[in-house]
């Protein structure tokens, strides 16, 4: 079908100006916003939904994966550890009791440093911390296009109930999950794909009895997962970088749910309680990057801004150093990436960056870099790495293995 075009011209009112503008309110965007604010910048965060947390809340991926190396050594600190504890500030948790905030090593842990959490409780805790820290959050606002002036992004055009408006900023952080801002700004990106999944909470009399007997509300409900894993050859990969891909994903993810409900129709001992309210894309698009993150266990990286380790698995797990350059584009001077869109050398490295702890780490690094670059009066890629590393260490992060 031949594409049709119409030409539209209008004046877009500027409704906000800030130092650091964060696009996307998932855990990466929240960490970026908090880090930039704590380092002295004025921060505005734009979120297309009406709750913060992204896949962790709207997507029902309500497990904050492990931040230790499997043998009792904490790898992630800083905002990653802080947000893990924030998930259960007002709700239940199954965190192993020996793991306490601030502890770097535990002998013979009973489990990894991770927790399941209650989604509404985390949403409310995120609202509270953003307001307390002075981050301006604008909900129900969809990013439309960047406002470019050469190699500088001056702001973005958005759509919401007020119509088409603009927010201007000195530095922009793309935490969209899909590199939408970078891609529309002309940055070189790499496309990916995600298998179809769908998570839902369900209630049964059996699980309710189990929870009551254990005195544990988390055991009273079951989290059911529909879909095929990424390693399954039958798992169809769907791109989520256009409307067709998003809608295809939604239809395909709900089809097995319908079949399941048909087999459990009108059971008096069963009820499906919740469903995700955003597609659970894993890897849709990443930036090519000024540098790339590679999985090199224990290898020293001079420009490391933090360490990562697999959130899943048991036994001694590898630890990787993450390079600052993987947050940046080679051309655009004032834009940083946060979350699963950061530059990775291959699919395995890309998969590592999509987990909640890794997203939070890259968000904190991007937000800290943005605030420090403003203080230094330099573009992001000229920021002295030693100053960034010092700030991240002071915030509680491990920089080198």
List keywords for this structure.
27% helix, 7-stranded mixed sheet, 401 residues, 3-stranded antiparallel sheet, 9 helices, globular, 22% strand, alpha/beta
Descriptive report:
The chain is α/β, with parallel strands linked by helices and 401 residues long. 27% of the residues lie in helices and 22% in strands. It has helices at 27-38, 78-86, 119-133, 180-184, 205-214, 243-263, 347-353, 356-376, 385-394; strands at residues 14-23, 43-46, 63-64, 115-116, 136-138, 142-149, 152-160, 163-174, 189-191, 194-195, 197-204, 222-227, 237-238, 270-272, 285-287, 304-308, 320-323, 335-337. The strands form six sheets. Strands 1, 2, 5, 6, 7, 8 and 18 form a seven-stranded mixed beta sheet that branches. A three-stranded antiparallel beta sheet has the order 12-11-14. Strand 6 (142-149) and strand 7 (152-160) form a beta hairpin. Helix 1 runs parallel beside helix 8. The N and C termini lie far apart (54 Å). The mean pLDDT is 95.
Task: Please sum up the structure shown.
The chain is of the alpha/beta class and 401 residues long.
* Proportion of beta-strand residues: 15-25%
Q: How much helix, percentage-wise, in residues?
A: 25-40%
Determine the number of helices (DSSP H or I, runs of at least 4 residues).
Answer: 9
Round the Cα radius of gyration to an integer and report it: 21 Å
Number of DSSP E strands: 18
């Amino acid at each position: 079908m031949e594409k049709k075009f119409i030409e539209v011209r209008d004046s877009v009112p500027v409704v906000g100006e800030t130092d650091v503008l964060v696009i996307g309110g998932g855990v990466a965007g929240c960490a970026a916003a908090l880090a930039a604010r704590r380092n002295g910048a004025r921060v505005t965060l734009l979120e297309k939904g009406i709750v913060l947390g992204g896949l962790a809340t709207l997507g029902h991926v309500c497990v904050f994966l492990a931040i230790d190396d499997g043998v009792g050594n904490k790898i992630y600190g800083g905002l990653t550890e802080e947000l893990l504890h924030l998930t259960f500030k007002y709700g239940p948790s199954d965190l192993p009791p020996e793991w306490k905030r601030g502890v770097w090593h535990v002998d013979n842990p009973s489990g990894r440093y991770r927790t399941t959490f209650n989604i509404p409780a985390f949403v409310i805790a995120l609202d509270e911390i953003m307001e307390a820290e002075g981050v301006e959050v604008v909900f129900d606002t969809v990013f439309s296009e960047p406002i470019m002036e050469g190699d500088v992004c001056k702001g973005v055009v958005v759509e919401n109930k007020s119509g088409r408006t603009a927010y201007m900023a000195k530095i922009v952080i793309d935490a969209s999950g899909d590199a939408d801002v970078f891609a529309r700004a002309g940055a070189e990106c790499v496309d990916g794909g995600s298998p179809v999944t769908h998570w839902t909470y369900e209630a049964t009399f059996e699980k309710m009895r189990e929870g009551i007997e254990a005195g544990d509300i988390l055991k009273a409900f079951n989290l059911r997962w529909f879909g095929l894993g990424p390693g399954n050859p039958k798992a169809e990969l769907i791109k989520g970088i256009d409307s067709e891909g998003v809608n295809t994903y939604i239809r395909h993810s709900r089809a097995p749910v319908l079949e399941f409900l048909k087999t459990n129709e009108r059971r008096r001992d069963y009820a499906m309680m919740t469903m995700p309210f955003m597609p659970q894309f894993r890897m849709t698009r990443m930036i090519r990057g000024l540098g790339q993150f590679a999985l090199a266990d224990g290898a020293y990286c001079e420009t490391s801004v933090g360490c990562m380790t697999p959130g899943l698995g048991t036994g001694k797990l590898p630890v990787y150093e993450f390079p600052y350059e993987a947050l940046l584009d080679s051309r655009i001077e004032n834009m940083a990436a946060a979350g699963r869109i950061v530059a990775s050398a291959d699919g395995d490295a890309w998969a590592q960056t999509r987990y909640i702890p890794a997203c939070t780490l890259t968000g904190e690094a991007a937000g800290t870099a943005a605030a420090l670059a403003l203080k230094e009066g330099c573009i992001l890629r000229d920021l002295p790495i030693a100053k960034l590393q010092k700030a991240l260490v002071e915030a509680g992060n491990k920089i080198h293995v």
